[in-house]
Here is the input.
Amino acid sequence: MVRFEEPALSDRAAAAFLRDREVVTEAAAAVTDLLTLERAVPLVVRSCDGDGSSYDLEARRIDICYEEVFEARELFAQTGRRGNTDDAVAAVLLETVFHEIAHAVVDDLGVRTASREEDFADQFAALMLLRQGAAGERRLRAAADAWNLLAATAENADGDAEDEHSSDRERAVTALCHLYGSAPGRHQDLVRPDVLPSARARGCAEEWAAVRDTLLKTLGPALREG
Ligand SMILES: [Zn+2]
Here is the structure.
């Protein structure tokens, strides 16, 4: 179900990283553990030559791009981030794999999502990560950090620091809201004006509970027992 294609020369280190960290196989196994799908969806890990990771609706195949390992690494390298960069990079890629699997799940189940499908895919990834406990919580945090960094980079590139509503920023805040909402007592440190403003944080426990319920209802027919 997971196939690693021969990487372009420049992607060799990224390919080795993804294999060694078992990012893609771990994601596939976690989804198989939760859901029974009609068809197995091939996950192809490859050099994408400029395209991003995606679900190909016609080929019914997920493509995950080696290049995104470098992109995530570059993002975190700018920040002098504390903690393990390899873990953060693997977390971003893992979130991406869950996100793309969500598109395949929607296609497989033939369901309509209550939210926009892109939001559903982010929510599904959050659910999969939060199911992992503390490790998954750190991973979701790392994915949100990456979106915040992307948002900051895009603003700088545009010379438009006023635009606080870029979709990357919104994805970051929503992910942090769901992380916080899943266990407010454990994540008080997220509630800061520059991370998760308290006005938003206040509604996050309810928001995540509702999102989670809707997700599970949507996935209902495919959920394994127990
Ligand atoms: Zn998507």
Notes: The beta strands are 2-4, 43-46, 54-56, 61-65.
